[in-house]
Design a protein that fits this description.
Order of helices and strands: HHHH
Distance between the termini: 65 Å
Strand content: under 5%
Helix content: 55-70%
Number of helices: 4
Structural class: mainly alpha
Length: about 120
């Protein structure tokens, strides 16, 4: 396979990559936030970069939580379709919640009668 290294060919590829990236950004932000193309086009590049990072972080967290729910469901101890009995948490579940809280850089709060 021989690569075409002519300048016009490379420029065409760069133009296409730029169009693809532009379309990706518009689609991502419109889908995630419901914004119009015009509004997205008015955003500055640093703002767009920050938004994409925030979206990725949120999706990574959601993916992690989904994987934890799948793993719990596979153990038979708890599944996404059944609710655990209130206030009956095993020691392992409490440890797992604390590990998850550290990963997500948050705290685990005990809830009593719907209040923290």
């Amino acid at each position: 396979m021989v690569l075409d290294l002519r300048v016009p060919f490379i420029l065409d590829h760069l133009k296409q990559a730029e169009k693809d990236f532009y379309s990706y950004v518009i689609d991502l932000l419109a889908h995630e936030y419901g914004w119009t193309i015009e509004y997205i086009e008015s955003l500055s590049l640093p703002t767009i970069v920050k938004l994409i990072k925030a979206i990725r972080k949120r999706h990574d967290t959601q993916d992690l939580l989904f994987q934890i729910n799948v793993a719990k469901g596979m153990t038979g101890k708890i599944s996404s379709n059944s609710k655990p009995e209130p206030m009956k948490h095993s020691e392992n579940e409490q440890k797992n919640l604390e590990i998850l809280a550290r990963m997500l850089k948050t705290k685990v709060y005990k809830v009593k009668n719907g209040k923290t």
